[in-house]
Design goal:
The chain is an alpha+beta fold. The chain has 12 helices and 10 strands.
């Protein structure tokens, strides 16, 4: 089953930044963060987000990021203070139990506040986003549903993924215009099966390669005074490499396919839609090659890798209005005052939750 796209004029996303420009921002951020023992990292995060937001365009209009370094720093101080208090009081067994139970209530609250903060400091065409998700929905999606999935040996995990994405998208607004998302469960199981296929295929290949080279492994171990210890160390290294080769690519494939499903079934207002055609294997190649280049250059090519990935995702994302885009923007702008005053209630709880 495919999402039904309206007969509007497609407006492709575009990333106009460059690796050389971002390198200048990145290196200054890194040096100042080191000099200030990490304090400047709050401002560094704002500069980075501003650069990527302001260089991402759709229909000739760019996004923008409005948070300040002080907001981010304030939120981090609160979180760090909470961790310190938990560490100190957690030494008392009874208090530790109470604190653990308290986290069940606090973590969903922080997740909601983070999503709300991230939305409210983001805008497109000078119109801000908003997030109205609830604590109860966050608790269900991040605590209850994963526990239920575990009881089914994770065979129902695609249902959890769909529910989490529904919580994220349905909680968002663009100005006063609500967003919504729903889709059949099939695409999520398809993504899970693709990830599993990668994992099983990698395991089969790894077993075959190790089997062929077993004599070499045994010979390598035998030249040491403690061949059993060397063999055990080699086994541990091979297992870790196998886990990395299985789970990291499988996660990238799963997330890429889920991204396509979420965008293709998301609706903004009365029929405005999105479209994503990210190729999972292509994104996997970009991620792997980025990691190799970053490692070889000792991190100096990190800006290039970030820009490369951002450009690929933007180039494979499209906004399809149900009518005239100018009419849509005009309607949103006319109604934005309804929530314009809400942005005064902003804490800096930006803890990296991505929609």
């Amino acid at each position: 089953m495919q999402a039904n796209h309206p007969q509007g004029t497609p407006n492709e996303f575009e990333f106009r930044g460059s690796a050389s420009e971002y390198f200048g921002i990145w290196i200054v951020n890194l040096l100042l963060s080191l000099i200030t023992f990490g304090i400047y990292s709050a401002w560094a995060k704002v500069r980075t987000k501003k650069y990527f937001y302001q260089n991402t365009y759709v229909a000739g209009r760019s996004f923008d990021y409005h948070a300040t370094g002080l907001q981010i720093l304030f939120g981090r101080i609160i979180v760090v203070a909470g961790i310190v208090i938990y560490s100190v009081l957690g030494a008392i067994p009874i208090v530790n139990l109470v604190l653990i139970l308290g986290l069940i209530f606090v973590i969903p609250y922080l997740l909601v506040r983070s999503l709300r903060f991230q939305a409210r400091v983001s805008s497109w065409s000078n119109v801000r986003f908003d997030f109205q998700g609830t604590w109860g929905s966050a608790a269900a999606n991040y605590f209850l549903y994963p526990i239920i999935a575990a009881l089914t040996l994770y065979t129902t995990w695609p249902f959890v993924t769909r529910s989490v994405q529904r919580f994220h998208v349905n909680g968002h607004k663009f100005g006063a215009t609500a967003m919504s998302f729903d889709s059949p469960i099939g695409p999520f199981y398809k993504a899970a099966l693709a990830a599993m296929a990668w994992g099983l295929g990698t395991i089969v290949v790894a077993i075959a390669v190790v089997g062929v080279n077993m004599n070499f492994v045994e010979a390598l171990a035998s030249i040491n005074e403690n061949p059993e210890d060397v063999a055990a160390a080699i086994d541990v290294i091979l297992i870790l490499l196998l886990l990395f080769a299985v789970f990291v690519p499988a996660s990238i494939i799963y997330r890429a396919m889920v991204r396509n499903t979420v965008y293709n079934y998301a609706i903004l207002g009365d029929g405005h839609r999105f479209y994503s055609d990210v190729n999972a294997l292509r994104l996997l190649w970009i991620s792997v090659s980025n990691a190799v280049v970053i490692s070889v250059t000792l991190g100096l090519m990190l800006p290039w890798a970030h820009v490369r990935r951002a450009r690929y995702l933007a180039n494979h994302t499209t906004f399809i209005p149900s009518g005239s885009l100018d009419e849509f923007v005009g309607d949103v702008t006319a109604n934005v005052s309804a929530i314009g005053d809400a942005y005064g209630d902003i804490e800096g709880f930006d803890i990296g939750i991505a929609v």
